[in-house]
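Lecture 7 notes: from sequence to structure.
We start with the chain below.
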Amino acid sequence: MFFFLQLTLITLLLGTSKAQGPTNCVTQCSENGHYPACGAWLVSDNSKEVQGTYRLKEGYLNLTCVIKSLPTSVDITWSYRPEFSTKWEPVACASLHNQQDCRVRLNSSDTALYQVSRSTCMLKTDQLTKTGYYRCQTLNKSSQKKNFVLRILCFISSETPITVVGIEFVDTVSSDLPFDKAGHVEVQFCGNPKPEIVWLTRGAVMQPGHSTHRMTSLKTLQHKKWESKHLQGPAYVVPYCYRTRLVIGKVEKNDGNISVVIRNEGETKVVPMDLQVTNLPSSASQWPISRQFWIITFFSLLHSVAKEMLLS
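Predicted C-alpha cells for the same chain:
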C-alpha cells in the first residue's frame, strides 16, 4: 500500500568531482553507477508499528527514521499532510532528536562505509488536526566549486497514517432567550469522527432535525469561518467542527436549564449550558396581582359566611 520513493534531482557536472563536506564524514562514491554508488537509502522506519488510531490527549507516539547515504550524511526533516489537504507542512514535534554517525558498516556483507542519519520525532496527540499522513525526508548537504555543482539527493519515505479521535470542545456560540418570546441557543462542537448531538431540555430529549410543539432542533452544519480581510468570502471549512441550533417558539422561565450530549466512538460528554432567560416578570409586578387575588378570595369567603349566618 505504501512505497518508498527516491528522487534524484538533476546533476550538473562540468568535470570529474569528488564529494565535498566535512573531512571527517565523507566517503568516496561513484556518480556513474559503480559500487559504491552515491545516494540515500532507507534503513528502517516504524511506520507500520505506529500507524493507526489514537485517543485525543492520551499520550505520545514516536516516529523514527534511519537513512544511510553516500558521500555525506543527510539532514532528516519531518512533514505532514492533513487528512483533507494536499499540501505538505512541517511537523510540530513535541521533541526532536537527530543523530549522525560517520563511516558505519551496517552489516558484514557491506564493503562500503556509509554515513548513517537517525531521527526521532515525538508527536503529541493533543489536537484533532494532528490526524493526517506523516513522512520523513532528506536533503543532502550540497556544496559548490567553480567547475561543478554537487548533485542533491532527495529521499522521501512512505506515508504513515495517523488518526486522532475524540471530542475536542463544546461551546455556546450564541443564545437569546427572552421570556414569552421566540428564542434560540446555538452551539459549536469539534470531534472526530463527526459526533452526534442530543439536546436535553425540560421535558424533552431532541436530536437535530426533530421538533416538539414548542422547540425545533435544526440540522448540524459544518462550521465555517471568514478571514478578517475577506468578510464577504470565500469562507473556509474548520476541520472536524460543526454547528447546530435549538429554536424555541415561546421561551419559558425554566428554559435556561438546557444541556447537550455530544457522543462519538472516541468519547461521550454531557455539557450543562450556562444560559439565562431574560425579561422575566419581576416579583414586585407579580405581588399586586397575588395580593388582589387573596383580597378577593377573602371577601368572597366572608360574604359566603355572612350569608349562611343570615339564613340560619
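Points to note: The chain has two domains: 5-158, 166-272. Residues 300 and 306 are 10 Å apart (CA to CA).
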